[in-house]
Amino acid sequence: MIDGIIKGVKISGIAAAVSNKWTSLETFIDEENDEKTVRKFIKMTGVTGRYDAGIRQTTSDFCYVAAKELLQKKDVLRDDIGLLVFVSQTPDYGLPATAFVLQSRLGLSKNCIAFDVNLGCSGFTYGLNIVSSIMKTNSIKKALLLCGDTSAKHRKPDVIKNTHSATMLFGDSGTATLLERCEDQEIYTSSMSDGDGYNVIFEPYGRWRNPIAPKGIQLSTMDDLGVFQFSTDRVPDLINKTMIKLNTTPDDYDCLVLHQANLLILKQIAKKTGFSMDKTKISIDVFGNTSSSSIPITLVRHYGDEMNTSKIHALMCGYGVGLSWSVVDAYIDVEDVLPLIHTDEYYADGYYFEGGEKNE
What we know:
Oligomer: single chain
Order of helices and strands: EEHEHEHEHEHHEEEHEHHHEEE
Radius of gyration: 19 Å
Helix content: 25-40%
Largest sheet: 9 strands, mixed
Distance between the termini: 47 Å
Number of helices: 10
Number of strands: 13
Shape: globular
């Protein structure tokens, strides 16, 4: 594992945004999904519903609203943001990177590094590693890590041919995390990847190597057994090795915040790492699997409405597509976690939407 302690950087704000439309999985009961199938899915995954992006909303719209609210609440000057990293697998355009669009929309200084990272469920913890490392080697006071995906929208039957289970599993959201210099704080990160598993969660068609999928072939695939074995074997192993490295136990943490893959996987990881389910925070029931935003949105769900000045010691772990997995140990002030934001806002860029009317 690649690990290290990044001194002098802290997480100083977290915000998450979703739409105003929450869809219950009960609505999926139809001719193709009978009641027994849906209820079995709910029991296994823990998902009872999810938020759906509006037809013109993208991941960056949610991240923009979350970042705007975070900067306002934290009274941050736009010129103080020296780095913006957008982590997503559902960007706005083929090019340029969505980070540049967000830099412009947020009114950030031109003295700002901006780029995208194509990562899924490990994106938040990988992103914390990337952002905090860059901050340590540059004269950056504050940085924004924007994570999210609109996977539910991406997997609607009229947009992409996929399994019904995948359609029910994923939710749409975007998050913003503020990092800043603070000499008496530190963040521990540990990351791993295994490219031999690149096709365990895979979209082989629709890009440059294989532009067009054969008729009747779904565009994305997932090896359910492979994902389960990876998540319940290598992920708890890294968490346990992290605690050994830091000389900590579950008793030293206020919470274990995992990527919200499904409830069965969360329970298995908690069991293998010695964490009680009371400390293992859950949000998949309300939001579904929200990919790279699942860890920050889980923190928002559990701490965003609390009105106190306490500090939590969090052990966070993202894992998924790649294969990739990553752990972060950090302290977070509860007052820096904002309440959940709902928005129907979208960016009217003036270009044609789905080849028809202009996006205005």
